[in-house]
UniProtKB/TrEMBL annotation:
Residues 117-130 have a biased composition (Polar residues). Residues 183-243 form a coiled coil. Residues 1-24, 51-76, 116-137 are annotated as: Disordered. Keywords: Coiled coil. Residues 52-72 have a biased composition (Basic and acidic residues). This is Nuclear distribution protein RO10.
Length: 248
């Protein structure tokens, strides 16, 4: 009786040896790392341009890496690094949204390196996290948390208040948007009125200055002149009257 043959399970993707497999072979470790970087870059190229097949690229790089000791045509590590750098530079020079995304991420990495921690930094941080924390540090942290406990309640109440706020109807927002041109015209008119008021204030100040010089100071000088003339006339009248008295 023939037995039913079971289907052959699919073979998983075989990656190059890692550091755990060959801890004493740094060349294989470097080649494995470069192969993984090449795989990621191929997938990125496929997502951005649609011209790269990440699966075939991964298989080709895997075969070339695992046979590094037999195939003499395998590129050296510096050559592979230069190839990766040139491909990444090509992605930065892409037109449109893909190139702008790559350039933006690169600028963020250069300006804010803390957003992209390296593997060594993360490993160092994780090793520090595994160390036991002293009791006095725990008590200090607990005291700090308790001192800020009121902030949690106040923040929660503020959030609940925000949830109870009513959202204005869309018609009001539409009316405000429709009134924006009129508001702009009114703002320009207000600026024109302000400039006219400033000009009128200047002219009023000039008129007031002229009135003070002409009406007040000028009239004072005129009254002084008239008083001098009246005194001269009075003296002349008295002189004439004395002469008449002496003649009689």
């Amino acid at each position: 009786m023939a037995t039913e043959s079971s289907p052959t399970p699919a073979q998983p993707l075989q990656y190059p040896p890692t550091l755990q497999d060959e801890p004493l072979n740094p060349t294989l470790t470097a080649l494995s790392t470069l192969s993984l970087l090449n795989l990621r870059l191929s997938r990125l190229e496929y997502l951005l341009t649609g011209k790269s097949d990440p699966h075939s690229q991964a298989h080709n790089e895997t075969d070339r890496t695992t046979t590094a000791d037999k195939d003499t045509t395998t590129p050296t590590i510096p050559t592979q690094l230069r190839t990766l750098e040139s491909r990444l530079t090509h992605l930065k020079r892409l037109d449109g949204l893909p190139g702008s995304l790559v350039r933006m991420i690169d600028s963020l990495r250069r300006e804010y390196p803390e957003l992209f921690p390296s593997t060594s930094n993360s490993a160092h941080t994780s090793s520090h996290d595994l160390t036991p924390t002293p009791k006095h540090d725990l008590s200090h942290h607990a005291t700090e948390v308790l001192s800020h406990s009121t902030l949690y309640t106040s923040t929660s109440s503020h959030l609940q208040t925000l949830q109870t706020l009513r959202i204005p109807p869309a018609s009001q927002s539409a009316n405000l948007l429709n009134a924006a041109p009129r508001l702009q015209q009114l703002r320009k008119r207000q600026e024109e009125v302000d400039s006219e008021i400033a000009e009128l204030k200047g002219r009023s100040a000039n008129v007031l200055e002229w009135w003070v010089k002409t009406g007040v100071v000028g009239m004072g000088e005129l009254w002084e002149d008239w008083e001098g003339r009246v005194r001269d006339v009075e003296r002349e009248v008295r002189r004439v009257e004395r002469r008449r008295g002496e003649d009689t």
